[in-house]
Model the fold of this input.
Amino acid sequence: MSDPLSRLGNAAARRLSDIGALARFGFGAGRAAATLTAAGRVVAWRVALQQIRFTAVHAVGLVVLLSGILSFLVISQAIRELGRFGVTELIGTLMVIAIVRELGPLLTALIVAGRSGTAIAAELATNSVLGEVRALEAIGIDPRQYVVVPRLAAAVISVFVLLVFCDTVAIATGYVAAALNGMSGARYFEIVLQSLGAGDVWLTAGKAVAFGTILGVVPSYYGLAVRRAPTEIPIAASRATVASIVGVFVCSALFVVLR
Done:
């Protein structure tokens, strides 16, 4: 009986150790960002712009497509079901709670984790295996300043921008779904705007920052943890993606608990 308990305890200790290492890595990236020189900020911003182009600009089409489909399905079904009970006014509450607060941020984060998180981990793991990270350390340059900080900043900005697109498209597609199911557009927007408050906007912005931080720190951590063989690169990318998704869901649950 003690053996399974011992294994469970060891597994829990390893997970807590990993979380602690991730937290230290994240705080270290924050300190590295605070100590960047003026020239360093220029270089970091150039790298961040490239990351934003890949993470945000190239992902807009996918976010628009999936957000539109999700909103259309949810609102179409909701209008039909709620219409049976004469409570279609709850459409606005459903749109705000289900899509703007929860599904929109989660959908955006999952897209970024699947596309950019995997790419960041694989890229940094490759750089580590090729010795580029050690070369920076050898000449006295903190790799976090030029490798992690730009990707962290790009992840936060990209998630925020994509989330704005996601929510905007979701509300617009909800209008189309409402019109196709017999609800006037004016009534739909009236209900949605009545349900959408300033707190929802700030909550969405907070989730964008939190999710972006996770999606910038976690893949960078797993990518830089690779030191030896090229065979570790896909493993690091896989672990980074899974850990990022788990972290996003846990963070979303914490928002619900603390709200």
Summary: The radius of gyration is 21 Å.
